[in-house]
Each structure stands twice: as structure tokens, then as C-alpha cells.
């Protein structure tokens, strides 16, 4: 086999592996992404899977501050909130997410500083670690009790990755349950209303930017069990 053929085979394999990894990351069976948008009323969406008629919310163009994301638009099922879909909507107070939702992407609600509460539906399988960065007013987080990937055990007002016992998203009124083993990247990022937090003895690691911009934080207890704290 000559070098040119070998190089082409290597590049083809690398492309295949990158696509395979991306689909695994979303874990929602994406088969095709079309470079086209479907706009209905105040919702702009990406068609993710034409065969199964599945779309991502790309942007909300309306002016309402309390909104309900539809589960279906023009016959297409809403399965995801796209990257930065509500980014910078500081006027947004409340968002109701549909039961059809499976994924909340990076920066989906970044800098939604007026958002006070969020409920994660039962079918959500992926939540980016920075989905709620800059949500400085967030005071209530509830995960549906039938969700198989995430939970908010003990009414902790946080999102926990059930399989790993990692707290991936907190808010101003969160507490950390004794069963938590790690605090994820950006977990309390911009929780400016968080005054104090106690980290239980079960926690062994604290991720990157976990408490960045917690401007109101005056007290934090870190136990000896924590052996790793990111320096970023």
C-alpha cells in the first residue's frame, strides 16, 4: 500500500470515528443534520432528523418572558435545545421544557439572569456543563423523578448525574447531598446569590470553574476527602 492510499484511508477512518463519537456524545440517535432551518411563529429550529421528524430549538424570537417550549412544531418533535438558543435573554423569567426533550446543549440558557427556576423533563439524556452559566437568579432546579440519567435527590435544588453521583448544576439555594462524590465543571458558575455551602465527606473532587463568580459566597467547607481541586 503506497503512502497516498494509506493517508486517504487514515483520514476516512478519522472522519468516521469523529462522527461516531459525536453521536455517542448526544446519545439521542442523530442520523442526519440538514443545513436548513424551519421557522414557525416565534421558534427557529434545526431539522436534525428528517426521517423521524426531529428538531432542535435554535432560537426563540418572541418577546414573552414566561414561555412554554412546544413539544411539536409543524409536525416535527422538539428533542433538543441548541447551543446558545436562549443565550443572553436576561428578560426571561420562566421556561417550561417539553417532555419530548432529550438534550440541552452548551450555553443554551447562558446569561439568562432573570431565570428563577427550571424543571428537567424525564427524557433528557444530555445536559452540557455550561448550559446555565450566568443564570444569577436561578433558585430552584427540579429533575423529574422518572428521569433515568439525572436526578435532584433529597430536594437538593441541583442536577446530579445519577450513574456517577456527580453534581453537574447547582443554584443559589442548592445543598450538596452526602451521596455526591464529585462537583462538576461550572457546577455553581455565577450563582451570585449562593451565600454558603457545605461539601460533604463523600466528595473527592471539584471541577473547573465550579465556584467562579459566586460573588455572594462567604462560607465554604471543604473536607479532607477532597483530593483534587481544579486550578482553572
Description:
The N and C termini lie far apart (46 Å). Strands 1, 2, 3, 5, 6, 8 and 10 form a 7-stranded mixed sheet that branches. The protein has a 6-stranded mixed sheet with strand order 12-13-14-15-17-19, with no helix packed on it. 10% of the residues lie in helices and 28% in strands. The longest helix is centred in the first third of the chain and has 24 residues, at 3-26. The protein has 1 helix and 19 strands. A hairpin with a 4-residue loop joins strand 2 and strand 3. The chain is globular and about 55 Å long. The protein is mainly β.
Question: Can you give keywords for this protein?
Answer:
seven-stranded mixed sheet, 232 residues, mainly beta, disordered N terminus, 10% helix
The major beta sheet can be summarized as: 7 strands, mixed
Question: Overall mean pLDDT score?
Answer: 87
Helix content: 10-25%
DSSP helical segment count: 1
Query: Beta-sheet strand percentage?
Result: 25-35%
Tertiary shape: globular
Low-confidence stretches: 3-35
Order of helices and strands: HEEEEEEEEEEEEEEEEEEE
Which class best fits the helix and strand makeup?
mainly beta
Straight-line N-to-C gap: 46 Å
In angstroms, what is the radius of gyration?
20 Å
Total beta strand runs: 19
Amino acid at each position: 500500500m503506497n503512502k497516498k492510499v494509506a493517508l486517504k484511508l487514515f483520514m476516512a477512518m478519522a472522519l468516521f470515528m469523529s462522527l461516531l463519537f459525536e453521536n455517542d456524545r448526544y446519545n439521542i440517535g442523530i442520523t442526519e443534520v440538514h443545513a436548513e432551518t424551519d421557522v414557525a411563529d416565534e421558534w427557529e429550529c434545526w431539522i436534525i432528523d428528517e426521517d423521524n421528524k426531529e428538531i432542535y430549538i435554535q432560537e426563540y424570537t418572541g418577546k414573552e418572558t414566561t414561555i412554554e417550549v412546544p413539544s411539536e412544531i409543524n409536525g416535527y418533535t422538539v428533542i433538543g435545545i441548541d447551543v446558545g438558543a436562549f443565550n443572553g435573554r436576561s428578560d426571561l423569567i420562566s421556561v417550561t421544557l417539553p417532555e419530548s426533550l432529550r438534550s440541552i446543549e452548551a450555553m443554551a440558557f447562558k446569561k439568562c439572569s432573570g431565570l428563577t427556576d427550571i424543571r428537567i423533563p424525564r427524557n433528557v439524556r444530555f445536559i452540557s456543563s455550561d448550559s446555565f452559566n450566568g443564570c444569577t437568579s436561578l433558585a430552584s432546579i427540579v429533575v423529574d423523578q422518572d428521569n433515568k440519567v439525572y436526578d435532584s435527590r433529597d430536594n437538593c435544588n441541583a442536577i446530579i448525574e445519577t450513574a456517577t453521583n456527580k453534581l453537574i448544576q447547582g443554584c443559589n439555594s442548592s445543598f450538596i447531598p452526602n451521596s455526591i462524590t464529585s462537583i462538576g465543571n461550572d457546577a455553581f458558575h455565577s450563582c451570585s446569590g449562593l451565600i454558603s455551602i457545605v461539601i460533604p465527606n463523600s466528595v473527592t473532587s471539584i471541577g473547573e470553574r465550579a465556584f467562579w463568580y459566586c460573588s455572594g459566597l462567604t462560607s465554604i467547607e471543604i473536607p479532607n476527602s477532597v483530593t483534587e481541586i481544579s486550578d482553572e
